[in-house]
Amino acid sequence: MNHDKMTNISVKRGFLWPSFEIYSGVAGFTDYGPLGAILKNNIMQKWRKQYITEEGFYEIESPTVSPEEVLRASGHVNNFTDPMTQCVNCKDVFRADHIIEEQIKKEVDGLDNDDLDKLIKEEEIQCPNCGDKLTEIWNYNLMFKTKIGAKGDKIGYMRPETAQGIFIQFKRLSRFFKNKLPFGVVQLGKAYRNEISPRQGVIRLREFTQAEAEIFVNPKYKTHPKFSKIKDVEMVLNSAVTQIKNESPLTITAKEAVDKGIVANEILVYQIYLAKKFLNELGIPDKFLRFRQHMPNEMAHYALDCWDVEVKTDRYGWVEIIGIADRGDYDLLAHSKHSNEDLNIYIQYDEPKTQTKEYIKPSMNTFGPKFKQNAPAIIKKLENLNVDLVKKEIENNGKYIIKINNSSFEILATDVEFVEKTEEVKGEKITPHVIEPSFGIDRIIYAVLIHSFHEAENKEDKDYFKLKPNIAPIQVSVFPLLNKKELNEIAIKIVEELRNYGLNVDYDTSGTIGKRYARCDEIGVPIAITIDFDTLENNSVTIRNRDDETQERIDIDEIKTKIDKVMKS
RNA sequence: GCGGCUGUAGUAUAGUCUGGUUAGUACUUGGGCCUUCCAAGCCUACAGCCCGGGUUCAAAUCCCGGCAGCCGCACCA
What we know:
Elements: H1 3-12, E1 16-18, E2 30-32, H2 34-54, E3 58-59, E4 65-67, H3 68-73, H4 76-79, E5 81-86, E6 93-95, H5 96-104, H6 113-122, E7 138-141, E8 145-148, E9 154-158, H7 163-168, H8 170-176, E10 183-192, E11 207-217, H9 227-230, E12 234-238, H10 240-244, E13 250-253, H11 254-259, H12 266-281, E14 289-293, E15 305-313, E16 317-328, H13 330-339, E17 345-362, H14 364-371, H15 375-383, H16 387-397, E18 399-404, E19 407-412, E20 416-430, E21 433-440, H17 441-452, E22 453-454, E23 464-465, E24 476-480, H18 485-500, E25 505-507, H19 513-522, E26 527-531, H20 533-538, E27 540-545, E28 551-555, H21 559-568
Parallel strand pairs: 3-10, 12-14, 24-25, 24-26
Antiparallel strand pairs: 1-2, 4-9, 5-6, 5-7, 8-9, 10-11, 11-21, 12-13, 14-15, 15-16, 16-21, 17-20, 18-19, 22-23, 26-27, 27-28
The protein binds one RNA strand through residues 8, 11-12, 18, 21, 23-27, 75-76, 79-82, 84, 86-87, 90-95, 98, 129, 140, 142, 160, 193, 195-199, 204, 298-302, 460, 462, 479, 481-483, 510-519, 521-522, 530, 532-534, 542, 544, 549, 551.
């Protein structure tokens, strides 16, 4: 790992570029150059393959601008802000709630800004730096605000996560999936957070790409049909408990993790497994990965449980690249409440359940004459009473007194019967829980680049990206050994054929062959094909492997089969 | 957002302190020559003082502001 060298080559060769550079740039934004854009697409396509093709989820695409109501309901308008205050003297800026808590040693969660302002005055909270006075509190909201429409009176925000777009479409989605749980919906796209001061390059962007899956499950069945296949897979888990006790992470199998209650359920573990598999296949080995459970106090406002997948970097230490959260029913309930829509799903039982329930049945031949015109009202009241309570009261005291308006009525044992009634219940409405793996694509690309970067070990060696063939932006380079007309002609023919076959091919005639090999190694092209004078005579070419520099003489007709083989490795 | 350091072709740098010729060098890149398998050589071309203002006869160089990068603090639901 060598962040500086890697970044240098990635900029030089067109993977990642600073944005708006000719206007001196803006922090927190990045451009994907020509190779970076392909790499990103390849990784996103691979992600789609794993979650859409292999897991059977479906993708939707929703707007990146949201009306305010959506983000009010989701909690982002209120919870995604930080109360800030500034020292009038030294101009340092602080989280208001943090410094209040620090100085009065009391939690101030849930207080609004006016309360906090009051506290600052009453408790004489001072600048922790220089002890001077603090300004009034203002909210720093991490969302980009905008206006929708010409009048500009409708507030919109750039979405801070792609997830909300899925929750909002829950009704249509559940119909699309024939109202059957579980089902999974994914969305890949941009999200926006106006970070106070982003540094760390592509690790903390103000505009970034997420790939999220929202898996809607029946809260009673958080099992997974494929779990048995992965139950023996070992993973390194750093649970909240091991973190609190300062113990080293546990290496345990998926099954043990569930059995011992370290991870809440099978679905969550399965998702951790998928994340690990995905990263392994991108070329990030297990020793650079770990799974860390959020501590109760660091959990986002919506989460029941959350595991971060972290990757080791030389520059930034362990970096979170994926979050896998059990969001429970938080989002659907929140949107249901704010929109007045039923966001639930009707679960039909396999077999109708018979429920036996006790009712209070008025004995009408005594009840009617006794209460006369008040009878209907009393009956209605009786229906809503707790049966056991009424029964006990009559058994113990011989009567139960019902008050309607200002009159009270005595219900005696002779006035009512207690009847058991059996009825069939065919199903129930439930609010699904949501399991959400959320991938930070930009961070993953950084992780892929830093971990596929091969640093020269000696003078003969060189720096290059050892990208896995299935994500390499360019799969094949085709070189004529010398820049001669007759070699170029064949080379161009092969290039065209491979391009038609669906491969990204680079054709290069400049400089010496060694230089061209070096150049294509640098950007991670896994295969090079060289045409020489023997090709003219016997139709054979040299195929070269990037990683071990081995060469093989093969027939032109074998090229595609050979490439396919490498691509699958 | 605060403080410190830094900013010269695509990259790495010389020059900045002590203002003064056409901003030098290497690699890279393009074109050409040569060349039968791992950045060889030769010729040639392209390309730079972060932006804005000030001081001065004269600013890459000194001063101020901005922007960006790095480091520390704060922030990162």
